[in-house]
Amino acid sequence: MTPIRINFQRLQHDIEALSAIGRDADRGIHRMAFSEGDLAGRQWFRERILEADLDFYEDGAANLHGRLDWDGQRPSVMMGSHLDTVPGGGPLDGALGVLVGLEVLRTVKESGLPLRHPLEVVNFTDEEGRFGGLFGSQAVAGQLTPAMIHAARDLDGITLTEAMAAWGLDANAALFARRPRDSIHAYLELHIEQGPVLDRGKISVGVVEAITGLFKWDVQLKGQTNHAGTTPMDMRNDTFQGLAEFAGEIERILEEHGSPHSRATIGRVELKPGAANTVPGYTSFSLDVRDTDPDTLTNLADAFRRTLSTMARRRSLMFEFEVLSELPPQRCDPALVQLLEDKARALDLKDLRLPSGAAHDAQIMASLTRTGMIFVPSLEGRSHSAAEWTNWEDIERGANLMLQAILSLATESGGELK
Asked: Per the database record, which ranges form the Peptidase M20 dimerisation domain (predicted)?
């Protein structure tokens, strides 16, 4: 019997049409949450849901749901990701998972197969972080509080409450988007890898076994501003030299306290007063640390804190840091991991188990229901840029793998996971 397959021409058309929305002169896509580009992308998605004769629903967090065979009684099998982008982002990060989910619903509807569980595709609001990130999935998982909603603001000082009000939405309604645990049978997300492993290995699909956790600090070093020509080197309280020493310790800390999945990045540095002839008396920098194991993350945090303290004491500097965000790692459901591997091999796809080094909505949904993820290769590992792309044949393979997994989970003839 020939397995059901998605309509790839239709999916390809959707990808091309959506990628034109929010595209700027730099060829990057600008659909940041609650921007004009985001609004246009959401309207386009709503039209596709209604065009496919699916049920449309928008919850209090402005998440957009397309539903098939919905009755409000049986737990659904949900697929999702996000349509919002980073500034100048690519066409597939997040969007591919939403569009594949939509295509799976259309394909199953056209097949006429009876469903044990309704199907849902969800576009989660502000995954990329204009107002902090993962807002929509946190709302569905019941992780938001009024204080979190009130405090959320972007880099320009615009609050989430203001941005949603401009669209006629009440940000506090996100508290009512929470779903009961028994309302979702399983959650699956397809995403580009955003890294080079699958592409370099010529591997069609990745089956994610764990999603990284992270902590992000804003670190300030305080010393003494002084003249670059008249202050002897051994009499300086130079905060940049403190940063340079700390940065040189990162690889040692990861080797001694981390794992092969550990990552640490200083991605932003600010020196003050910032003059070429002045010893900087103030330096601030970001520290982003990731791993898939919670104990390892704790050990890394302790090691980085001790190293900062030792360096600051030796150089007569003051240091302090603010925790900007913390996200616990999550393991994907073992039965779903196995299901995806089995279906990949049934489709004769070369697959690989691997961790996700980036955060995803699936990470939040794992606190609510069993969760699985499919990766497709990113050419040269590129993402968050206009150069982001995945070969069409790999997109088709990943989409058909998602379809077969959904058929197993949701249809009368698909069999039940034990």
From this structure: 213-312
